[in-house]
Design a protein that fits this description.
single chain; alpha+beta; Rieske Iron-sulfur Protein; four-stranded antiparallel beta sheet; 11 strands
Length: 170
């Protein structure tokens, strides 16, 4: 190729003449050095080490979470002795903080939560018959142990106006 026929830009030796004349391309003219291989191995080792630390680390909930019992020991409801909550297992474990002071217990006949005063709640804590719903604490389960955060509560769901007769009234 004579000097006047050479395009003004682009590596004419590595690209077809049309591509070299239309676009600016970056072409590596030398192989990457050993530092690139070592660097990629070091970064890969760091990623593997971080992954192992994350997988093998103890991720049990810390304060203010309190261990209140084992999932295997929970039938439908339980009231742990070390925390004033009522644990309810219905597809998931829930912890109601205001239930023990109201005398709420599980009624086998109605499969609902009931108080001695004849108030009724669903197992999700929703009040039935206009009764105020129960406030729920956050719950986590780690390695079969139930943890409750007694410092926080969720907003209680709005009660249902559906009239319900208690199944375990005294």
């Amino acid at each position: 190729m004579s000097e006047p026929d050479r395009p003004e830009f682009g590596p004419s030796g590595y690209l077809p003449p049309r591509a070299a004349s239309r676009a600016r391309k970056i072409v590596l003219r030398a192989p990457l050095g050993l530092q690139w291989v070592v660097g990629s191995l070091v970064v890969g080792a760091l990623v593997v080490a971080a992954g192992l630390l994350w997988l093998l680390g103890d991720d049990a909930p810390q304060e203010p979470w309190v261990a209140v019992g084992e999932v295997a020991d929970l039938d439908v409801t339980a009231q742990p002795p070390d925390l004033e909550v009522l644990l309810v297992a219905n597809g998931r474990v829930r912890a109601f903080g205001d239930a023990p002071e109201r005398g709420v217990a599980y009624c086998e006949a109605s499969r609902r939560l009931e108080s001695p005063d004849g108030e009724v709640w669903s197992l999700t804590g929703r009040g039935l018959g206009g009764v105020a719903s129960l406030r729920e604490h956050p719950v986590q389960i780690h390695d079969g142990t139930i943890y409750v955060d007694p410092t926080h509560t969720f907003d209680a769901p709005s009660p249902s106006s559906e009239a319900v007769e208690p199944g375990c009234a005294d």
